[in-house]
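Question thread 4412

I'm putting together a teaching handout and wanted feedback from people who do this every day. The idea is simple: show students a protein as raw sequence, then show them the structure tokens that encode its fold, then repeat with a second protein so they can compare. Below is the first pair exactly as I plan to print it.
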Amino acid sequence: VMKKWFLGVCGCLLVIGLQAQKITKISAVADGYNGKVIDFEFIDNPDNNMQFPYVSGQRMEFEVELQEPALVKINLWLWLIVCPGDEIHADIHYSGKNYRTAEFSGTPSAVALNEAIRDGRNHRIAGRYKTNPLAAVVTQVPADKYYAETQANWKKEQELLEAVRSRVNPFAYEYVYAELEGMYLSNLVKYPYIVSDVAKKHIGDCIPAGYWNVLDGYRVKDSKAALKSFTYKSWLLDYKEYTDKLKARNAGQEWKYVRDLQKSYDGLVAFYDGDVRDAALYILFYNALTSQRDDFDLIAKLSKEYFKKYNKDKTYRKELTEMQK
């Protein structure tokens, strides 16, 4: 009887597992492009990536199996969020190499969310907002101006997302929201220090009014959807650094960046807990391994401790172990 029960449970779990995978259909038509290929890059699962030769007006289509919503970047610039079982079609318009805009059709919830994301990005492009702070420094955007633009653009995107919230997949909404929050808040807190460094100005002359209060009461997101976003996970390290700078300022001390993996590791272990700590430490090691500027033996020693004590998401462990081979 026990064996039958066990097999029955396994059978049920298998069915649940199979049901969880749903076919998502993606199609697109592009025009006005002068490049050779159109790339569909799945940010969290490169196995699903697709590439098509560019032919103006020719339909590109494919299917993927998804268990949860995924973010796709089409030729880097156009974001597409797709959910299990969605059908989504994009008409993409380029002017040479530059993406101009896109229209969507298909599953209504998918269309609503992707239109909100598109409108937010179009708003950013129209205002010439530099999502890369280094590009803003090069064009000499003053710190207080960039600070104000960052807040205004983030507020606008929040409004666009909020307007469709009730009509879209909650996981997909939270994922996109976290991705954008991670980008905007990271830009907000880093920019004055980048200006100070590049322009060789004293940091005190680069801090905009309100900078030290802008994140009062901020609560870190710990949902599975938010922590799926690589950008949000990266923000966790920037947020910890911001709080360190704030502490130094309140103590009348000057904060200085020191590249010290052991210190960063200990700091994150003490500052965060649970899934958030797991995500932050994953990013710490990911960055250390990709930059190749840290002692490999120390990375190996600390990551071993991380796997044993703090790792919950086994995909982090798998990826970091592959990277250390």
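The second pair follows. I'd like the answer to focus on this one:
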Amino acid sequence: VWFLLLVGYGYWSWKQAIVQYDARQDYFYFLALAGCLIITQFVFTGKNALRILVISIIALALFESIYALVQFVTNSSQVLFAKKPDQYLGRASGTFIGPAHGAFFMSIGAMLAIPLALAGNYHRVWRALLLLSGAACLLGSVVTFSRGALVGTAVAMASLGVWLFFFERRRILGSSMLALILVLATAGGIFFAQKLQADSRYTLAGVRLTRLWPASVEMWKTQHIVCHGPGQFTHVYRQFRPAVTHATGHPKRAHNDYLNVLVDGGVVGLLFGITILGLCVPAFFSWGKPAEEEGWNASREHRAIRVGFAIAAVYICVSLGSDFNLYITSNGLL
């Protein structure tokens, strides 16, 4: 019922939008994502299907990470058959043009691989491979120099450390992970704070904090409940663009998915989206649940996968506040 109401609300918003082409494009894009989410509830129901899904995501993220590391080491601006814009030189991105979008995909692979390695009841060879894959994904994400990815990774890994400390009762491992994250987060925060202070008026991060996000809030305030319609951010932003240089002339997105949904769909659209995801969570965490006769090993594996999903969800919730990964097709599907 909620899904049908969301479809109906999206259709009404599309028809009320100023620019119909962009509204129609965004409407069918989100309709396709919602359809894929529902289909997965019926396709990935068995334990083996769930394993295939998780391993496939980790393998793809590992490929992205290896490619990103090669880009970084060789200082290459090549992305498959295209070249990155000059503003991304020195930053790896994998097969994505935007470094932050590549970091999102790689980090999700790490969020799934590391809990499986630490909590899954696998042979030590497989656990070592999973741990190395997770470390490679994290390293690939780091060389993108995406602030949002680094913050999301720190919060997600801290959540994993808390879980290990309190629920798995692995005190040494959990406390060591929390201490390491604290040290790395402090060092990274100092580095990026100095960099942002040095050129805050000219970096995208500075533009977001001082120009783009405040303007997005003003856009939302004009129509709190239903707002402007899907795909309308760039058109409405022109009326709220600050009269200063480096304020981002015609941005396609708000670089904050929460703000973007608020501007396009209003409070109603955001609540619909959160509710749909909330309704899917119980089914999501019951995927591949082993039967009682399958024993302790299967239950432990399923628990590790659920923890991986939970850590990935923490990362997603944080990272959506710093970019527009929801509107990148591969990341939206992920």
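Top answer:
Good format. For the second protein you could add a caption like this: The chain has a mean pLDDT of 81. The first helix runs from residue 2 to 16.
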